[in-house]
Specification:
Keywords: Membrane, Transmembrane, Transmembrane helix. The chain is of the alpha+beta class and 312 residues long. 28% of the residues lie in helices and 42% in strands. The longest helix is centred in the first third of the chain and has 34 residues. The relative contact order is 0.08.
Length: 312
Amino acid sequence: MIKNILETKEGRRLGLIGLALLCSIIVLGLLFIKMPLTHKKTTQSPTEKEKYAKQLEESAIKNGTVYQGIWISNRADKMQVEIKSNGSYEATRWLTTGYVTTDGKDMTFKDKNKGKVSFSFETQNGRTFLRYKSKKENILLFPDEETKKIILNQATENKAATEQVKSQKWLDVLQKGNWESEKNGDHYELAFNSDAYTQTYVSKEKLEKKVYQYRILNQEESDDQLSCNITLVRTDTDGSQEKIECTLTEKTNVYQLNAVSGTFLWLSSYQKEVSKVALTQTGVEKEEAKKITQTTVDENGNQVVVKEESIN
């Protein structure tokens, strides 16, 4: 009977409709089975690892709130960063907004524009501040104006002390002990005191001496601190003055003095043994002094190591 119905036109139409309904029921059934699985996946609870990571971050943010307040910088644009009680922050320059975390060694600003920017904690003279240093930036953050003033003033003093150490060393090299040279069996000497120098020429036949007054106009030490260019103003016996230059260089066992040919009488290169020069620090003999090393920062935020000689 069913076969007879399907052979008619109306029967074929009803068969197609029935097949379509069957397919629809199958598809709906599959979707119904899949839906609980999808729902279960989206509501899955976080793993223990995710919970631990979140706890660490929340703890770090809480630690950061200990440092809440307005931090001021050494930047030329006078950047300030306000750390709020909820661990968020806002900056006037460079940094923008975000939140801070700290592990006790570093404070990390998770910034909207710059991403993670970590400042290290440093302490000088009992004062704590933050430092960020890269190839292009060297930024300090201070918790208050007083700390900023103390740290940067100390840096200025240490910079002056460092320059004094360098200056005194090369004065000692220049002035302590005689500079000597030999040529063709003849002996030449160059001896400096605080305001005059004497040139001496000794041969088998004669002895010649010439004295000049001088003052130091400038000293410029090399980056490797192994040489120094000194500019002098020399006064002759007739009162005429001339600016001259020479370079002092420290080698393994000797110091060398070199100048352009014609700067000094007779020869332009001399040397003296390092062992004959007792270096001083602000007038105290090096052998009598104790070394004191202090690390601080200069006004630009750069680390400065000052080695001082002290009799204390």
